[in-house]
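User: I'm preparing a small set of examples for a lab meeting where we compare how different chains pack in three dimensions. I only have the primary sequence for this one, and I'd like the structure in token form so I can line it up with the others. Please keep the answer compact; I'll paste it straight into my notes.
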Amino acid sequence: MSKFLSAVTLFLMSSPLFAAAKEMEAATAPSETVDVVWVIVFGVIFIGSIVGFFAYLWHSEKNRKPDK
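Assistant: Understood. Below is the structure token output for the 68-residue chain.
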């Protein structure tokens, strides 16, 4: 019985190692690239949303009524 339990324990401990080895094989596979135009579009939208958020904060702070 103890041999069986040790075999099961070793099997369960080695399963993540096999999964990690398979994951490394998948990570080294070539991946598809994205066209540069879409990277630029993402950058413009991302930076624009940040600038728009700070413009909104500035505008709302400027129009805030002072507390008495």
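A couple of notes for your slides: The first helix runs from residue 2 to 27. Helices lie at 2-27, 36-62.

User: Perfect, thanks.
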